[in-house]
Each structure stands twice: as C-alpha cells, then as structure tokens.
Fold this sequence. Notes:
It contains three helices and eleven strands; from the N terminus they run H-E-H-E-E-E-E-E-E-E-E-E-H-E.
Amino acid sequence: MNRNLLICTAAVACLISAGCFENRQKPADVPTVTSLQALDATNRPEVVRLILRGQTGPISDKDLADLPKLKMLDLSERNSKDIPQAVFGMKTLEHFYFVRNGLDKFPEALQGLSALTYLNLDGNAIASLPDAAGALKSLKWLRLNDNKLESLPAALGQLKDLRRFYARNNKFKAVPEVAKEWTMLEDITLDGNPISEVPQWLTSLPKIRAISLNNCPVKKLPDDLSGWKQLDSLSLGACPIPPDEMKRIRAALPDVAMMF
C-alpha cells in the first residue's frame, strides 16, 4: 500500500476512534440557515445568520433558542405582525429584518438589542416611534420606507452613529428636525412624502453625501447651498421645481450628480 495512503488511513481511523465524525450530519460551522428544519439539523450555537423570509407557520421562542452567535435575523413577509419574544433577548443581533408583516406599532422591547446596527421595518403600518427607539445607540442604518409616520421623537437624537435613514412614502410634511443631531448621517431618503420645504440646516450636516426627495412637492432649495458641494448625489425627480431654480441649483453644485 502507498505510504501516503497508509498515513491518511491511520489518521481517519484516529479521528473515528476519537468520535470526531459522530456529528457528521451537523457541521461545526453553519453561518447561514434558511429554514427551521435546517436549523434543527445543524449546530445551532454556530449559526450566524437565520433567514426565514416569506415562510409561513408560527415561530416559537423554543425555535429561536440556543443561538448565542446569531448576528442577522430575517423574519420578513411572514404575514404575522408579532415578533417572537426570544428576539428581544438576542444580545448579539446586529441586523434585523421585519419587512411587510403588518406591524402597526414599534416594539419598545427592541431597545434591548444593544448591538443592533441595521434595522429594516419597511412596508409595515407604523404611525409613530416611541422614545425607546432612541436607545438603539449602535444603529447605523434605519429603514422605515412605506409606513405611516408623520414625525419622529426628539429621543432619536441619541442615534449619534446613524449613517443612513430611509423613510420613503410616509406622511412627513417636513424633514424630521431630529436629523440635526445625526452628525454622522451620510444618506437620507424621503421620497414620496408631502415635504414642500427643505430646511437650511440640512445643508450643514457635515457627513451628508446623498439626498433623495423624489416625488415631493419641493419647489425651492435653501438659498445657501455651499454646504452641499461635497454631495455625491441629489435626487429631485418629479419635484415641481421651476427652470430658473434648476439653473440656480446646477450653478451652485456643478460637481454633484443630480436628477430632476
């Protein structure tokens, strides 16, 4: 027998005798799982991402137990507005998706997810946010598109590390004033809201790179646009901006990619 083959055979025999293959149906590291059935068939403590989007059937707290390394959880499009209580205790969770589930109230218990950096609640029926949402101080990306929001609480000013805020197709009549406090904000999208005026302070956010106000009834931008010279993009599609104002904006921001 070939010497290398003998060595390999001996090594395998050693691993078997040590019990190393007893768990061969449950790999040691399964970072992404896409069904509860698959979750039951693998090493739960090693799961990093659990994606159950669009799947029907109830989820119990037992289903979500023993996931000490979970960083990403997607419970979107399940036709259930109830978030399992087990979610609120997931201290390692960084990304949480709960999209298009008919959620009509922001769960205050989410404030316990201190590691959360990305929260996506698009396509629900949320009409207001509680002060408790301001406790998510690690949040960098907040998506609230297609809800029913008219305003944001001042407590959200505590989100000092927020980089992206998307709230397309809500009911905001003005750019949320709390955004003044988001000094790290790079990208804000408020398309499809009944916003008719752009405040001067929005030009003073030091990190802002992209602003989108498509399909808003905006007719004029602030007189002083010098604070936006660092913008990468400015989207004002379907806004009723007169030609003279468009000309002024282009002249003030010649290097910014624009859409009218």
